[in-house]
C-alpha cells in the first residue's frame, strides 16, 4: 500500500509540473490558419472578422532578405525579440498610438500583428457594428490579402463612439479606405508622399555597395546604379578603385520620415577614365520614361552586360576546361558567376521563355529566346521567379530565377550562356545593338531636360526648387 501511495503521489506531482510548465498557456490555442503551410491558410469570406490576417507569402527561392530597388532600408529601431515575445496586451499597447483630432474624433494607429483579424481591429475600438465595414472592404479588396506587419488606422466618431473610417496600407503605394457610419463605402487610394530631390556622389575604393554606404545611402541605390549602366559597364569585370559616380535621385517622405527612393533622374559613372551618363526622358505619350545619354542614344541594348548586377566571375568561356566534378577536360561554353544561393538572376534581354525546368547536369535551367537569333541560358538555379514558365514573355532586367547549385555543381553559382544562330558564343562578344534613341522632333526638349538635370548636379540650381512629375515613371533602371 505504501508503494502504491508513493506512486500516486509521484504521478500527481508530475501532472502539476506538466500543467504549470513555463511558456504553456492552456487558454490559448494555435491558429490553424497561421500554422498551416504557406498557401493553405483559409479565410471564411462570409465571416471575415473571424479569420486571422495572413503572413506575407513566401517566395519560391530563399531570397527573402534581398531588397527590391526602391524599397526603404530596414529600420534599425524596429521592435526587438523581447517585444515580439511579450504578452498580447503589452505588444498591442506598444504597437499602437492614439490621438484626438480637433473635432474630438479618436484616431488609433498601429501595425497588424500575427493572429489579428480585421474584425478585432475594428471591434477593439468604438461600440458600433463593424460587420458592414468588412462587407464594404470586401467589395474592393480581398480580405484574404491582409498581411501582418502592415500599418492600419481606425477613426472613431466623437459623438457616438462608432467607427467612422478604417485605413489599411496594402503596400508602399496603395491603401484601402473604408469610410462612413451607417453605410460605409470602400475605395483604394494612392498613398501621398513628399518628394525631395537629392544629389549623391562617391568614389569607389573596393566595391559599389561600400561606396554608396559610405555616403550614408542604402544598398538599393547601388543596385539602381548598377542596373542603370548594366548595358554599358560590366560591374563584375570592369570596376576598379578610383571609379566614381554621381546620382540625382528622388527621396520619398511621409510625415517627415524617410520611406525610400523615388525616381533616378540623372546619373553618371566614370569607369577606367571614361564617363557614362544617363538622363530620364519621356519620348511619347506613355508615362514611362527611358534613359538616354547626352547624345540622345538609348542606354538600353539588346542584352545586358551580365545577368547579375554585382558579383564575380569564377570561370570564363573556353574550349577546354577540366570539369571540377567529372575530372576530364571539355569545353565550357559559358561564363560562371559566383554568388550566394538565392541571389536574383535577371533576363539579359527581352524575349520569350522557351524552357524552364530540369536539364540534367545543368540542374534547374531557364532558356530565353531574343531577337537577332539570340538565346540566353541560365543554369544551376535554386528556383524560378513567380510566373516564370515556358511560353511567357519576359522583359530585359526582369528577375526570372535565383542562383543555386543544382545539377553538376560544386557550389552556388550561375552558369550563363548565349547562343547566336544556334551556336554557343562568348557572351562578351555577342552582337548588342542599341534600342531607338530620342526622336529628332524631341531633341530640343531633351536638351532642355539634360541642362536642367546637370544644373542640379553641378549646384547651379537648388535641389529644393524641384517639383516632382508624378506622371513620369522610371523604367529602365528598375529592370522592368
Question: Can you describe this structure?
Answer:
The chain has helices at 2-19, 32-35, 81-84, 88-95, 118-123, 131-140, 208-214, 219-228, 443-458; strands spanning 96-100, 106-111, 151-156, 163-169, 174-179, 185-190, 194-203, 244-254, 257-271, 274-281, 288-292, 312-315, 318-322, 329-332, 335-338, 344-346, 351-358, 364-369, 374-381, 383-384, 393-394, 399-402, 413-420, 423-425, 473-474. By secondary structure, it is of the alpha+beta class. The strands form five sheets. Strands 12, 15, 17, 18, 19, 21, 23 and 24 form an eight-stranded antiparallel β-sheet that branches. A hairpin with a 6-residue loop joins strand 10 (274-281) and strand 11 (288-292). Helix 7 crosses helix 8 (219-228). The longest helix has 18 residues, at 2-19.
